[in-house]
Every structure is written in structure tokens, then in C-alpha cells.
Amino acid sequence: MQVERLKINYKTLEEFKKFKEYGVQELSMLEDLQENIIEDNCDSPFYGIYYGDKLVARMSLYERSAKYDLYFDPPQNYLELWKLEVLPDYQFKGYGKKLVEFAKSFGVPIKTNSRMKSKEFWEKMGFQTVTYDMDRDLGQNPLVWYPEGVKEKKQTAN
Amino acid sequence: MQVERLKINYKTLEEFKKFKEYGVQELSMLEDLQENIIEDNCDSPFYGIYYGDKLVARMSLYERSAKYDLYFDPPQNYLELWKLEVLPDYQFKGYGKKLVEFAKSFGVPIKTNSRMKSKEFWEKMGFQTVTYDMDRDLGQNPLVWYPEGVKEKKQTAN
């Protein structure tokens, strides 16, 4: 079980169609490929795990700069993690955990937006629910992971 | 069929539990009530439609100020719409449409984050998919509605 950075090409985008959270991001990548805006094999924000030659788990991981940081104290570069998903037949085998551990290995804070049903999984992975702030969080259920020395940003009165 | 601004109180929060997208936002409101941080009957960002005395549809609607506007040209105050949801037995009866029309009646641009399955509904309501920008949109599938005279914000190179 090994985490790989996925290349953006037609094969990868075809594999992405099996995942429920196929969305505007993938459609936009497909267009960019077709219009030669990005190169085949260009690096992507996606990381995944193959079982044989089949992609069975993936996540998106993207570095946000400190100037956008509304979650951590002190403000700093952090990773936004989304579209963590394991195909149904491969769930409960540690693929999700492996991907999250990979994300944590960078040693910087991580923020994700959880589905309520997956909250238990995230807590097991050491993530914590932040204090909800409507102006910042809107429809999100933000969960964060703090490396040592980092804490939650204090809320300011709106 | 009439849209009402929902009061935040224990009764409303109890009704919210029937909706799938019950999340951190509702839990935080419940805590605020319990700790007397907010008053019973305080106005909320939630609007809904009752059938008899049962809440059967709801949405959250929140005004964002122009300084946060990354979607519209010219930059301006706009509404963020989320948690639009109709209870299963009441779907396909126009409740969702009624709520969205209510949001549009303010005459300002609206931004929402769609689930891919609901894209057809939003397009029928006059919403358009924006050009995906990873740095801004991350895991979202943003759809927007432009009142007359407003257009999509041009992308700047990252």
C-alpha cells in the first residue's frame, strides 16, 4: 500500500469517474487537457493508492499560504485536504488512514471539511472540530489537525 | 406555501435534526442557546417552509460583504446560500424552487456550492457554473446567479 502523487492525464481522469465526489474540479482538468492548457502528466493536487493497476483511494491536498490562514495560531502555511474517498469494495482496509497519515507527514497543519458521518474517522486520525464561525465557515463542518506548537486561532467578535 | 425566517429556539433545532445536512453549525447554535449566548427566538440565517406545523424545507442564506467577494464583477455584497434541502416526502412539489426564488428576490448575486447531482436543478433556477479556480474553490462546485448588470469575475493568473 503506497501513496502516489497522481499525474493528470486521460487515464487518471477516467479513473476519477468511479469516485462519488467527481465534480467541477475534474471537469475543469479534463477541459484543460483537451485545450492543451495543461500537459499530459502534469503534477496534480491528487494523491492516491493503486491496487494492482486500479486506483482505489484518493484525496486532494493543496498548500494554502499563511495570508489565507483563518484557522491556526500562529498563522502559517497549511494544507487543505478534500475529496478523501475510498471505493466501496476497498473500505475499512486502512487506505483512508494511509492517505491521511501521508498528509500529516508534511508536519504542517491540515484543514478539512468533513461530512458529519465521517466525523468519527477524523477524530480517530487526531482531527478536532473547530469552533464554528458562520462568517468564515458557512456551510462547512471544518476539522483541523494541529502539529505540535500550533493551536486554534482565537475567534474575534464579528 | 410561504417562506419564513426561522427563529433559533429548541423547537427549530429539533426540527433541523430531520435534515441530512445537520452539522457543526446547528450544534454550535444549540450550545449557544444552552449557554445563553444567544436568545431563544433570535433571528437566524435559516429560512424555511412549514407544512402545517412541520418544517419541510429549509436553506441558509447569509450576506457576505464586497470585501470577501471573489466571484462577481464588479465586486459587491452577495448572498451565500447553503443547506437547501427538502424532506424526502415533500420533494418535487416546488418547495426548493420557492426558497431559491425568495433568495433571488433580494436582487443581489448569489453563490452556492452544489452537489453534482443537483446541478440540473440549479441550472433550471438560472444558476451557472463558474470557471473552477483551485486556489479559491478547493473542494467546492460553485454555482452562481447573476442579477442584471453583474458578471463573472475574470480570473487572474496565479
How would you characterize this protein structure?
Two copies of one chain form a homodimer. Chain A is of the alpha+beta class and 158 residues long. Chain A contains five helices and nine strands. In chain A, the strands form two sheets. A seven-stranded mixed beta sheet of chain A has the order 1-2-3-5-6-8-7. The first copy, chain A, has a two-stranded antiparallel sheet with strand order 4-9. Chains A and B meet through helix 2, strand 5 and helix 5 of A and helix 2, strand 5 and helix 5 of B.
Please give the share of residues in helix of chain A.
10-25%
Q: What percentage of amino acids of chain A are in beta strands?
A: 25-35%
The description of the largest β-sheet of chain A is: 7 strands, mixed
Poorly predicted parts of chain A: none
Count of β-strands of chain A? 9
**Rg of chain A, Å, rounded:** 16 Å
pLDDT averaged over residues of chain A: 92
- Helix count from the secondary structure assignment of chain A: 5
Strand order of the largest sheet of chain A: 1-2-3-5-6-8-7
Q: Which two chains share the most extensive interface?
A: A-B, 26 and 26 residues
